[in-house]
Amino acid sequence: MRLLAKTSAAIALAAGLSACSLSGMLGGGKPPTNLVTLTPEAAEPPQIARTVAAGQAVTISTPSVARELSTVRVPVQVSPTDVQYVANLQLVDTPARLFASLLSETVRRSTNRVVLDAEQTTLDPGLTVTGALQRFGYDASTGQVVVTYDSSLSVAGGNRVETRRFSASAPADGTAATVGPALNRAANQVAADVARWIGSSGS
């Protein structure tokens, strides 16, 4: 009987610790009301099987971000010096990784390029796309979600480097219900613009 009581107590403790761990990963005692990701809006071709010449592949790196974007929460620019976060809204991953994944898939769907990630650069880096995600959140003063990406494109060997800023906005009211979809629209617009730039660039 004493052994059974000890076993039950151990199971209850383990369950409690698991619940605490899950709660901690979700940022508090209660999970967020809205958990959002970025989904590509570019039409998906029936199949993607490509072969390109050396130097024609595209390697897309995860962008660097400011400290307020090093989180799974969505920032609100209240004033030039005041940054808060949208209540009850959480991303499934950091903005940098979500945007890199969206950009890769958008380029893959809307151009004829072979898209590689940073871990595949030994195959053929070709055109290398790096950048900084400058803004990825809600601007309270304008009532707009803003996504701004400073991109750099270089050919293998660094014989040519191009830089360009891409930015898009979408209206929202600052609540989780509207900021999430607006982020997806703005991020897709930026990704589509970058994809067109990559698609028109020579090697």
Molecular structure report:
The protein has helices spanning 2-25, 95-110, 176-200, and strands at residues 34-36, 58-60, 64-65, 75-79, 82-85, 89-91, 115-117, 127-139, 144-154, 161-171. The chain contains 3 helices and 10 strands. It has 203 residues and is of the alpha/beta class. The chain starts with a helix and ends with a helix. The protein is 32% helix and 29% strand. Residues 1-28 have low confidence and may be disordered.
Our estimate of the beta-strand percent is 25-35%
Helix content: 25-40%
User: Whole-number radius of gyration?
Assistant: 21 Å
Tell me, briefly, the overall form: globular
Mean pLDDT over the full residue set: 81
The tally of strands reads 10
Low-confidence stretches: 1-28
Quaternary form: single chain
Largest sheet: 8 strands, mixed
Question: Ends: how far apart?
Answer: 75 Å
Quickly give the structural class.
alpha/beta
Element-level helix/strand string: HEEEEEEHEEEEH
How many helices in DSSP terms?
Answer: 3
Write a concise synopsis of the structure shown.
The chain is α/β, with parallel strands linked by helices and 203 residues long.
